[in-house]
Backbone:
């Protein structure tokens, strides 16, 4: 997310605050916010433990780089699948810095084994939807949060088996159920999320982890 | 990679979805033979001598676990070298002790496409190919007349194949010490270690048709020479636990290992009816394996020039001697015993008129018949020299032209032994 990173660096250097950043804008300065004098802590202005008001609804996009691992035929080694993709979602804040939300990702994976002459390559494409629940603390530009997730992914891909000049390419379907937890560090709109979890992919136990760079808006 | 359009996209996604759903429901049912898999198997018309073809596995009890009638393919199979220092007990007791827990059932990642099971990943292709090639080796050995435990299907004599096996120094320190780019028969576990590939190119050795047949040949040698002969196993135990070897014992052991290797190559050539059964494995494996390819080629420069005598008296070309690590006369040292094996394999190949069919139908059956003769002499205390195999082998060969050709070859390749009258059948 180079744009988001660049933006956050500029903000850090200049100390300027975006006018539309609700975390630094008082309720009085945002008349559109549905707050009333008798309920100063409505969801729209829910204060975090640090005292900064949280976003009522936030959207985010990020680019995850993920690894998943599952056991192999020999029960000796581990097949690692590398995933790259794009994920977007929405988070709704509630009192106490808690939030719920969901996200949807499109992930392209790759795994291979063998030699240059004889090898098997598997390339899955997964659409994954997840529910999220967590908490987030903010102080000025900086935010720190933790969350749990659970989701379902469905997709397909191709398996290519090659032996010298001979090869076979076959499509396959794939499904994944995943649960896990993550932590999020944000600076202004830029955010870095680290996740680890477990689940079942194609009826096999797997472990997975991801690092994502993104932006919240 | 060249895609094959005729095969691409012929497998509807629906099959895949159905297979995924059915996999869970039927995963507990044994998947026994006959079962068709797509494996990397011999194909003389294809580059590298192998192709992805449909193979009907005839001897599987359950493809899902690796259990078979002749051998079990096992995952998480570890061999502790420290255990090899204690070879006591009778054969079965020793094997059971050293196999330990015997590893775990394999867990293949495969799909059924309506006709065949196909591998979903590399290890499963490896598993299918190893299984198909070992089944083929067992079938050939039986057809060639082996009645020893090597090709037995008795439940208590079943071999194991350790898939991606690990050889470790100790269970307390499970660091692999021999873990890649090879395959081996280990008599103490009466099984094969199919090791992963790491640095090689070409067909991973442990799934290579020729290497698997070669390794099967070692089991054939062990059981026919040692475990089938009264006192043979005890002799093997003694030889393999002896810490102080006399020069004569060392010489005998090195030559015996050489003959074991040569006859394993002969078995591979015969079982696959292909001169290059072994050589192909090294030819495509990369530069680091070229010297081995040269040493094992029965029609190559080394295979043509080397004899028992010019290796023994160091009169062979210096570069060949160097590749055999031979520096002292009369085999009075540790050396690359594969060199002696190639001399024997080349002699048999020439005596077979360079005909793979003769290798399969005449030479290997005679080898199998001759092997117990080695053990029968060794148990009398006679140190091994190559004539202990040559004589029973010539006796087992069909009288007439074939026997004459063998004797003619042995007179060249093992001149001093024949001239000294140590192969009476060639007098």
Residues:
């Amino acid at each position: 997310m180079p744009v988001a990173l660049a933006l956050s660096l500029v903000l850090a250097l200049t100390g300027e605050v975006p006018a539309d950043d609700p975390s630094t804008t008082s309720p009085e300065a945002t008349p559109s916010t549905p707050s009333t004098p008798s309920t100063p802590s409505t969801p729209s202005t829910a204060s975090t433990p640090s005292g900064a008001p949280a976003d009522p609804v936030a959207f985010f996009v990020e680019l995850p780089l993920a690894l998943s691992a599952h056991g192999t035929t020999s029960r000796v080694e581990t097949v690692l699948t590398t995933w790259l993709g794009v994920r977007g979602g929405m988070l709704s804040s509630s009192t106490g810095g808690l939030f719920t939300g969901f996200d949807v990702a499109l992930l392209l994976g790759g795994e291979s084994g063998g030699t240059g002459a004889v090898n098997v390559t598997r390339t899955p494409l997964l659409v994954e939807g997840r529910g999220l629940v967590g908490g987030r603390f903010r102080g000025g530009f900086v935010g720190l949060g933790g969350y749990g997730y659970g989701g379902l992914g469905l997709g397909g891909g191709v398996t290519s088996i090659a032996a010298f000049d001979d090869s076979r390419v076959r499509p396959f379907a794939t499904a994944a159920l995943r649960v896990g937890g993550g932590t999020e560090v944000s600076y202004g709109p830029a955010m870095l999320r680290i996740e680890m979890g477990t689940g079942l992919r194609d009826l096999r136990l797997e472990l997975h982890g991801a690092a994502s760079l993104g932006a919240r808006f | 990679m060249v895609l094959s359009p005729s095969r691409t996209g012929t497998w509807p996604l629906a099959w895949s979805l159905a297979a995924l759903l059915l996999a869970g429901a039927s995963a507990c049912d044994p998947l026994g033979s006959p079962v068709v898999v797509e494996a990397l198997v011999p194909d003389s018309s294809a580059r590298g001598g192998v192709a992805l073809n449909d193979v009907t596995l005839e001897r599987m009890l359950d493809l899902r676990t690796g259990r078979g009638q002749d051998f079990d393919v096992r995952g998480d199979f570890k061999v502790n070298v420290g255990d090899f220092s204690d070879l006591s007990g009778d054969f079965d007791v020793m094997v059971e002790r050293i196999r330990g827990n015997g590893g775990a059932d394999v867990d293949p990642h495969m799909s059924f496409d309506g006709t065949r099971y196909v591998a979903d990943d590399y290890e499963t292709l490896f598993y299918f190919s190893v299984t198909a090639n070992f089944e083929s080796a067992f079938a050939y050995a039986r057809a060639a007349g082996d009645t020893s435990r090597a090709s037995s299907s008795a439940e208590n004599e079943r071999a194991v194949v350790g898939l991606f096996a690990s050889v470790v120094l100790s269970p307390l320190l499970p660091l692999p010490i021999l873990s890649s780019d090879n395959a081996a028969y280990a008599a103490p576990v009466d099984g094969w270690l199919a090791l992963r590939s790491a640095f090689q190119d070409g067909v991973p050795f442990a799934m290579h048709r020729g290497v698997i047949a070669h390794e099967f040949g070692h089991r054939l040698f062990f059981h026919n020479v040692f475990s089938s002969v009264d006192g043979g196993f005890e002799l093997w135990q003694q030889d393999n636990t002896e810490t102080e070897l006399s020069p004569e014992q060392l010489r005998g052991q090195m030559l015996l290992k050489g003959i074991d290797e040569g006859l394993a190559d002969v078995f591979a050539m015969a079982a696959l009816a292909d001169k290059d059964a072994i050589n192909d494995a090294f030819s495509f494996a990369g530069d680091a394996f070229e010297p081995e390819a040269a040493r094992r080629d029965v029609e190559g420069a080394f295979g043509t020039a080397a004899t028992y005598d010019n290796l023994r008296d160091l009169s062979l070309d210096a570069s060949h001697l160097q590749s055999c690590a031979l520096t002292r006369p009369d085999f009075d040292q540790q050396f690359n015993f594969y060199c002696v094996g190639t001399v024997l394999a080349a002699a048999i190949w020439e005596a077979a008129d360079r005909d793979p069919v003769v290798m399969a139908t005449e030479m290997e059956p005679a080898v199998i018949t001759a092997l117990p003769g080695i053990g029968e002499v060794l148990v009398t205390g006679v140190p091994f020299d190559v004539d202990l195999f040559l004589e029973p082998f010539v006796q087992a060969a069909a009288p007439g032209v074939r026997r004459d050709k063998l004797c003619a070859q042995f007179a060249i390749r093992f001149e001093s032994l024949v001239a000294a009258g140590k192969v009476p059948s060639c007098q």
